[in-house]
Amino acid sequence: MHQINIVYRGKKLEEAGKVLIMLHGRGASAEDILSLSSYFKMNDDFAIIAPQATNHTWYPYSFLAEPSRNEPFLSSAIDLLNGIVNDLVSKGIAKENIYILGFSQGACLTLEFVARNATRWGGAIAFTGGLIGDKLYAEKYKGDFAGTPIFIGTSDPDFHVPVQRVKDSTSLLTKMNANVKEIVYKDMGHTIIQEEIDWANKWVLNSNQNV
Q: Can you tell me the distance from the alpha carbon of 97 to that of 121, in angstroms, rounded to the nearest whole number?
């Protein structure tokens, strides 16, 4: 089960108006994903939070496995994020000023968390990821995104994340009133490219869609 181990960067939480939560991929670390933050165009009002998955993995099997196979680790990861968000809200940071970003396994967890708790978030960024499960279980997801900007970038093909799951995730999120920008890059590989970062900056982090 995941222990609370969080790395911070940027403005102090007590002084921040906005917060970006960054979720690393399988086998990586909080420090790894934090290093990406220097590429984003965020104003000085942002605090940045990166939780560390216990044993560097949010859940043990593919995100396409039956959800029960990834328990109790998947639920523990969702609970960890709920705890972080609740703590931020208690400090006076509204959910519309909270942004969540992830790569690969962290991207899947990002989309899964916001879809289970749909509301007007600041935004979400998924660098190669989709909603979790051997199929989409629409009954797990509730709420209304109220126009929350979401960027999803992925490769065709990607060894870990089928394009069809990305498209199905976009469709479901859109039906929940998210404003999704999905881009499929030909033969990009399982990585993050500058164009994705540019879209994340423009579509989510510096968008006039934001509150």
A: 7
Q: d(Cα 63, Cα 130) in Å, to the nearest integer? A: 8
Section 26-38 average pLDDT:
94
Question: Is the distance from CB of 158 to CB of 184 less than 8 angstroms?
Answer: no
pTM: 0.96
Listed residue (18, 8, 113) closest to 58, CA to CA: 113
Tell me the per-residue pLDDT of 56-84, one tens digit each, with 9 for 90 and over. 999 999 999 999 999 999 999 999 999 99
Is residue 121 predicted with pLDDT exceeding 50? Answer: yes
Residues 6+ apart with CB under 8 A from 148: 114, 118, 119, 120, 121, 122, 123, 124, 177, 178, 179
According to DSSP, the β-strands at 18-23 and 98-103 are: parallel
CA distance linking residue 27 with residue 29, whole number of Å: 7
End-to-end distance of the chain based on CA atoms, in angstroms? 35
Is the distance from CB of 88 to CB of 100 less than 8 angstroms?
no
